[in-house]
Amino acid sequence: MFGLGKPAGQQELGRSGGLPKMASVGDFNVLSSSIPATKVELSVSCRNLLDRDTFSKSDPICVLYTQAIGNKEWREFGRTEVIDNTLNPDFVRKFIMDYFFEERENLRFDFYDVDSKSPNLSKHDFLGQMFCTLGEIVGSQGSRLEKSIVGIPGKKCGTVIVTAEELGCCRDSVLMQFCANKLDKKDFFGKSDPFLVFHRSNEDGSFTICHKTEVVKNTLNPVWQAFKISVRALCNGDYDRTIKVEVYDWDRDGSHDFIGEFTTSYRELSRGQSQFNVYEVINPKKKGKKKKYVNSGTVTLLSFLIETEVSFLDYIKGGTQINFTVAIDFTASNGNPLQPTSLHYMNPYQLNAYGMALRAVGEIIQDYDSDKMFPALGFGARLPPDGRVSHEFALNGNPQNPYCHGIDGVMEAYYRSLKSVQLYGPTNFAPVINHVARYAASVKDGSQYFVLLIITDGVISDMAQTKESIVNASKLPMSIIIVGVGPAEFDAMEELDGDVVRISSRGRFAERDIVQFVPFRDYIDRSGNHVLSMARLAKDVLAEIPEQFLSYMRVRGIKPSPAPPPYTPPVHVLQTQI
Are β-strands 448-456 and 478-484 bridged in parallel, bridged antiparallel, or unpaired? Predict the structure, then answer.
């Protein structure tokens, strides 16, 4: 997803130990200008959706798709929550996206009426869709795009409103709890069933929903559960921005009764429990009609606690090392390395797909590894001198010390192995996963995290053992990236990438999602700009690592070490003798 023109300089072709000297991804400063300029948060609302339910209104959900650069295939980006019984939903769950000014990011919003708990969208009623680009939303007046929903011939499907807001860089979250007293009674037979809805105000004075509490049944004096919300979601980091809170009485049919509202701000709330944080709930209609109207009850802030969310970079600053291991597929299905059709072909002027994937990922990860020594393994080959098959051999020929210096050292060992081993089979992943897991199991204190890059051309032979290895590894500080090269079908790999269904083995589920799979063919640039292909690949395969890393640290309760103080050179005091 990088907006690149032609590289600023041509690739320099030279000879270094018999290897092509390739321009690395880092050689082009053009790339640095394409780090996401900003992140935007998309809020989605609909009006007058189709009603697909017979006895009640639709229960809508919105699914966002983005379009891949190469093959124009649509990929699911995320889903909102389901809102029951409404044709006019204001979805609370937002989509947070990188925004590049120089790129066309095609978006598709699909709407469904949810009829069951199934995550399979084909089991639900389609309500229509809307196509646009991210630039179209951001470029609309007030960054608010209103468009007709289409997709069902002959039907008016309603409209969708998508609002984009640039995110302030605010990492604080707040834990708040509220209660209410003497709310208006809205139900004929019982008391009210109250809940709160929080809205933050936008630059143009409109409001965006950001939180709903649970419903407390049959009381006029509810105490809601404490809830956590990011300051970014609550006020976009602007402490004086108006926060509007509405109080409703819940009704089963979705026609919730409005009890009243009040406004506050982050700055007011941050005073905590005090007389300043008792709010009169006002119903403007009642106030206009009744002279003796005082209020429709009060809402009180019971507690307010600020928590700072830690980021991936906090751990890196605190000294956590990322250890990178690479494992390369040396099975015979890759083709004879001496033939140009082989995926392992050693072209003196151009990296093959294995080399590109290795460089693309390695050159980014190596920045987080202080000693730049990387274990490089191969699998699926017959080794000299006796031709035994190995699924875990050192590319540098030294099983006691498989480390190579830098990505250049890994590349050198890879090319040397191609000349000495015989490509064979089968394609077994479990041995190399277990190899890295043994190291990861010995350092669980958060000081090190392991990333294994497996580059393969094909169909996996030891699926059951690999699943078992991944489930075991999910408890360890490690992530696995699998890059598929060549034209094979990679259906089995999608199963290992636990994005849709969490991977399991013999009834045990993985504790975390630690596998990211991508087919390299999706990233090949048609114009032959390999730097662009590598940049796209790196961006996608590394995107999940920070969250996988943080999920391990969170589950283990490991906080980042404090960053070392900045270095100050010692001051030499000149002592003068008297």
Answer: parallel
* Burial class of residue 89 (count of CB atoms within 10 Å of its CB; 0-12, 13-18, 19+): buried
- 45, 90 Cβ separation under 8 angstroms: yes
CATH value of 36-165 in 3.40.50.11810, 2.60.40.150, 3.10.150.10, 3.30.460.80:
2.60.40.150
Amino acid found at 101 = F
* Cα gap 451→432, rounded to integer Å: 12
171-306 domain in CATH 2.60.40.150?
Answer: yes
Report the percentage of the chain scoring pLDDT > 70: 87
Do the first three CATH levels of 36-165 and 171-306 match, i.e. the same topology? Answer: yes
Q: Which of 104, 69, 76, 29 is nearest to 533 (CA)?
A: 69
What is the domain partition of the chain in residue ranges?
36-165, 171-306, 321-554
Sheet holding 144-148, edge to edge: 95-99, 38-47, 159-166, 144-148
CATH of domain 321-554: 3.40.50.410
Q: Which helix (DSSP H) or strand (DSSP E) does residue 451 occupy?
A: strand 448-456
The C-alpha atoms of residue 23 and residue 408 are separated, in whole angstroms, by 11
- The answer to whether the beta carbons of residues 202 and 163 sit under 8 Å apart is yes
- For the ranges 346-360, 365-379, 418-432, the lowest mean pLDDT is seen at 365-379
Q: How far is CA 21 from the centre of its chain?
A: 34
Q: At 14, is the pLDDT very low, low, confident or very high (cuts 50, 70, 90)?
A: very low
Query: In which band, very low, low, confident or very high, does the pLDDT at 135 lie, cut at 50, 70 and 90?
Result: confident
Q: How many CA atoms lie within 13 A of 202 on its CB side?
A: 17
**What count of residues does the chain have?**
578
The pTM of this model reads: 0.58
pLDDT digits (tens, 9 = 90+) for 258-291: 999 999 999 999 999 988 899 999 999 999 988 8
Distance CA 155, CA 135 (A): 28
The sign of the dihedral angle between the CA atoms of 265, 271, 275, 278 is: positive
Res 366: pLDDT: 75
At 379 the pLDDT is 97
Q: Is the model's pLDDT at 27 over the cut of 60?
A: no
